[in-house]
Write a structure and sequence with these properties.
About 50% of the residues lie in helices and about 10% in strands. The chain contains five helices and two strands; from the N terminus they run αβαααβα. Helix 2 packs across helix 3.
């Protein structure tokens, strides 16, 4: 997903975000849940079900992509952290009844 997700113009969205992140010497990459859900619905489904495990997998994948683009970036940041934006928060009707 991080390598293949493109915008409406065909440009690689996360490759560009990773380039900007590395230029700023940062280690956090923000990934849109809406984009993830549109392209990889199975991954998006498991993200709220097992967030720790899924974010760990995302972190490893992001680090792999970053190091393929910038082989020496691990000298600047030893870890890359993926942050999920636009995560929908849904409350079940039953939980609202208990209020």
């Amino acid at each position: 997903f991080l390598r293949t997700y493109v915008d409406e113009k065909g440009a690689s969205v996360y490759r560009e975000k990773m380039r900007q992140m590395c230029e700023a010497n940062k280690q956090s990459l923000i990934v849109s849940y809406n984009g993830l859900a549109a392209e990889q619905s199975v991954i998006a489904y498991f993200l709220p079900e097992a967030p720790k495990e899924m974010l760990s997998i995302f972190d490893e994948a992001a680090k792999e992509v970053v190091l393929s683009l910038f082989p020496n970036y691990d000298r600047i940041a030893t870890q890359i952290h993926v942050r999920i934006s636009e995560l929908p928060l849904l409350e079940e009707i039953r939980s609202l009844r208990q209020l």
